[in-house]
Amino acid sequence: MANRVFKEEQNYRGTWIMYLILLFELPTVVLLIVLYFNADDKTEIGMGLTFVMITLVLILIFISSLKLETRIDDFGVSFRYFPFIRSWRKIEKSNILSIKVINYSPLTDYGGWGLKGNKTAKAYSILGTEGVLIDTGGKKNNDRYI
Asked: To the nearest 5 percent, what fractions of the chain are helix, strand and coil?
């Protein structure tokens, strides 16, 4: 029997969130450049422009580096969420009581996308409303949405 493997990688590149960030950042940069060229004291405006430009570039780099990787195989479920979870975390098949694909609401169930959770469950999500619900049992219901 051959090993069955499902792999998925999610990130923000090319999504509406990246376009929304660029839609905010580009007019801000243009406004600051116009203020720089019209200012009498270019040193002070130049320092502010440099600080804002570096901050905006770092935000863009950070959001574009976010990546959720999931691997489901015959041995269990593995995932990592770069840069927060750098090494693979594995949920062994023997620890999984049930697993199913579900529709859920990241905003109402967990307050948004990202590394989220409450007392009974954890969610790792980038975008979308579909996820894998993994019931691992235990004293408290330790379900995970990936």
From this structure: 40, 35, 25
Instruction: Say what percent of the chain tops pLDDT 90.
Output: 4
The model carries a pTM of 0.70
Q: Which residue, chain included where needed, has tokens 């130049």?
A: 46
The answer, yes or no, to whether residue 61 has pLDDT greater than 60, is yes
Compute the average pLDDT of residues 120-146: 70
SS3 120: coil
* Residue labelled with tokens 């041995």: 75
- DSSP output for 32-86: HHHHHHH-S-HHHHHHHHHHHHHHHHHHHHHHHH-EEEEEEETTEEEEEEETTEE
Cβ neighbors of 67 (< 8 A, separation 6 or more) are 9, 10, 11, 81, 82, 126
Tokens of 103: 């529709």
d(Cα 119, Cα 140) in Å, to the nearest integer?
8
Q: Angle at the Cα of 102 (from 140 to 19), degrees rounded to 5?
A: 110
